[in-house]
Amino acid sequence: MRRVFLASLIAAVVLLSVLTYGGAPRRVVTGTVTEWHVGELISVASDQNPAGLRIALRETVYQGDTRGIKPGARVTVWYRSVGEGRPVADKVRVVAAAARR
């Protein structure tokens, strides 16, 4: 009986985590990297947020040449607000230099 209760409690916590994270609306920002700390955070300045939006990096998927991520590089970041101090990035795509306007 105790094992069933413990298993149910663990399942409920996992389900709640998935629903909370998975249900958070995904947002997108494209702009210029102003700050970059590998595996920790990226800050992206855009027309909507010239000061830069600081986004945490947790199990983030990267597309493009990640060696190009540094201040001044153009990136697109898909992120969610998941109850942490800052939003968390799902994906970061490096915008190729040839594709810049």
Structure commentary:
This protein is an alpha+beta fold. It has a single domain (26-99), classed as Beta Barrel (OB fold (Dihydrolipoamide Acetyltransferase, E2P)), CATH 2.40.50. The chain contains 1 helix and 5 strands, in the order αβββββ. It has a 5-stranded mixed barrel with strand order 1-2-3-5-4. The protein is elongated and about 60 Å long. The protein starts with a helix and ends in a 7-residue tail after the last strand. The model has no long low-confidence stretch (mean pLDDT 84).
Helix and strand topology:
Layout: H1 2-23, E1 26-37, E2 41-45, E3 53-63, E4 74-80, E5 88-94
Parallel strand pairs: 3-5
Antiparallel strand pairs: 1-2, 1-4, 2-3, 4-5
Tell me briefly what this model is.
By secondary structure, the protein is an alpha+beta fold. 22% of the residues lie in helices and 42% in strands. It starts with a helix and ends in a 7-residue tail after the last strand.
